[in-house]
Fold this sequence. Notes:
The protein is an alpha/beta fold.
Amino acid sequence: MSTVTSATKEKLRAPAADELDAAERMSRDELEALQLTRLQQTVHHAYDNVAHYRAKLDGAGVHPDDIRTLDDIDKIPFTTKDDLRQNYPFGMFAVARQQIARIHASSGTTGRPTVVGYTMEDLANWAGLVARSLRASGVRPGMRVHNAYGYGLFTGGLGAHAGIEALGATVIPMSGGQTVKQVQLIQDFEPDVIMSTPSYLLTIADCMVDQGIDPRSTSLRGGVLGAEPWTNSMRLEIEQRLDIDALDIYGLSEVMGPGVANECIETKDGPHIWEDHFLPQIIDSATGASLADGSEGELVFTSLAKQAFPVLRYRTGDLSTLLPGSARPSMRRMAKITGRTDDMIILRGVNLFPTQIEEIVLGIGALSSHFVLELARPARMDELTIRIEAHPDAMAAEVDLGVATLVERIKITIGSTVGVIVVENGSLPRSEGKLKRLYDLRS
């Protein structure tokens, strides 16, 4: 085990042009021609092999032959999580059961889980896209990658694992939880990069401090982080606390898993969507109308190359914006997820998201990043209370000023008054995977 300083840490670097996949080097015209061919094939495949899609398309008066341009995608009805649940477990599969090489599923905490399947070719494509994502993050063959995403039915752990191997890097398959052991293995195995949720990486950093370890002194140079919305303020905190580059990887099990999109180390300006495999749209959540690039709305994806589980216009519930490509000019970027349609809080007529609170909290030094939101209705009106821990080094007067600043900034920025309760350090739950910020106590 060695101690690393900022002066000795080698920075992650962007891939050279000849290291990119052929699709990453396509012109926009070439990419859109490929998208149209694959879209037409996907719609035919879904129509011919999935009864649900055939009924949906027939009900809308749409035949696969009607898809002649990319704009014709708007003729296709949306797919929702409820559609997947109603066809539980295998009704959305488009290949024979014998061709399914792996099954994943969501936790099902709010109802039946959503079940997804993969053929061997699907798994190879998935691994290749995660490898592309890691390479965009600055990961190179031979590097050691500590994988702290959960293994099992959740797509994160195994999806990341296969991509690390496909890149030619060394995987350390730690999975989630056992935070003390996470710290030990980071110290002992000296990985270059960690993959986890951003909130869990901060939990790991807290555990290092508890053990007298400077989080900046480890071998880690980068973090490829996702599976939950996180702000650029949280990125800054992670990068400063651990002296690493923090990159955003995006995915969801219904569309593939991690690796649908990823930030590029040279720009860090939002994940580039791998548009040779996924066709994105932004829609108005209320009306379903398609919105122009640059408009914020709900993110919708159509898969373009999946065999076992094609998805047509899947409503993700994630709120974002489509932007022009930068480091990969032909492929559009998505702005960081600002929230989800199902975690929006309507407080006295004002819409707000946990990520908005997070961004304000992380700008106040006397307060820590450990907080939860409690929505209650003690009388006729909804009330939002923030339970938060103070920064361990902050004095009482600094904490009091921090609380007053938090209330004032929320009022100015969001337009609502909230309550703030400072709780004992260590009393709030620590993330070991996806962080739950909002607790609705109104029922």
